[in-house]
Amino acid sequence: MASPIAQIASQAEIPVLKPASVAERSFVETLESLKPDIGVVAAFGQFLPRSIRELPSRGYLINAHASLLPRYRGAAPIARALLAGESRTGVSVMRVVREMDAGPVATRREIEIRETENAAELTDRLARLSADAIEEAMEAISLETIRFTEQDVSQATSAPKITREDAIIDWREDARSLERRVRAMAPRPGASTTLSGETLRILEAKVLPAGADPTSAIAGQVVHDSPPDLPLRVATGDGWLVPMRVQRGGGRVLDIEAFLRGREIPDGVILGD
Fold first, then answer.
1. Which residue from 75, 120, 191, 270 could staple onto 161, CB 3.0 to 4.6 Å apart?
2. CA angle 141, 113, 135 (to 5 degrees)
3. What is residue 235's three-state secondary structure?
């Protein structure tokens, strides 16, 4: 299925090139024939050789990265920021260089991360912010007022690609860390545990307010004597986590109440055991 950008370009009769590799000589020659003034890169996973980086008449490409560079350079800045419990993030418009996300920065836009925001919701807000930041940068380029500032390498941190292991819930972690993991992995790949050997994804959860003592329960143990408005809670290494939306392997995403009507989670069972 064509991406939204490709669909809009096709409707506007703008050529859409889809090379298997940007290193293909025919692709580079096509770009050269278009005589671009500037290039904008967005969510592109291939390494861009110097022949492409410096091809526009302005001599460079720009890219909007979903972090406040030099923090969270890499493939998964949004999920990594959520995992780390950051309260703020943003986008940085930079010049594309050989090293990943290391180019000098022209524009930054900063926002607060909402308390219950998951990766998809934050991605949507940052995408809109990126569009505004790119527009601002393009205007400055056209007026020749653009100014790039080198990143402080000593402050750089990495945001490597999310792996399957990142999505696995270790109930020995504290409840707040697990709640952040759930948000960082939602909706895909989804933070996962097991229930009687079957994968169970937790796509929304909340931390039970202080007051319930988990010391009598094993990490991962399900307890049904929750407050009246909560169907169940799960013991963690410190505190209780309350699953709110879950999904069995291959099944639909369901509120926990709807899930329990079709599949019992016995009191005392150990998740992830």
1. 75
2. 15
3. strand
Distance CA 158, CA 160 (A): 6
- What's the DSSP call for residue 43? S
Q: Which amino acid is it at 59?
A: G
Q: Where are the beta strands (DSSP E) in the chain?
A: 39-41, 61-65, 88-95, 105-112, 191-195, 198-207, 222-223, 233-235, 240-248, 254-255
pTM of the model: 0.92
Which class for 264: exposed (0-12), middle (13-18), buried (19 or more C-beta within 10 A)? exposed
pLDDT per residue as tens digits for the range 118-140? 999 999 999 999 999 999 999 99
- Cβ count within 10 A of residue 225: 9
What six digits make up the tokens of 56?
A: 């526009």
Q: What is the pLDDT of residues 25-60, one digit of tens each?
A: 999 999 999 999 999 998 888 899 999 999 999 999
CA distance 72 to 190: 21
CATH 3.40.50.170 residue ranges of the chain are 36-155
- The Cα–Cα gap between 42 and 20 comes to 17
Give the pair of three-digit tokens for residue 86.
């950051």
Structure tokens that stand for 126 in this block: 């940052």
* CATH 3.10.25.10 residue spans of the chain: 164-262
Residues contacting residue 208 through CB under 8 Å, at least 6 positions apart:
175, 226, 227, 230, 233, 239, 240, 241, 242
Q: Which residues of 166-180 are buried (b: 16+ CB within 10 A; e: fewer)?
A: bbebebebebebbbb
What superfamily does domain 36-155 belong to in CATH? Formyl transferase, N-terminal domain (3.40.50.170)
CATH number for the domain running over 164-262: 3.10.25.10
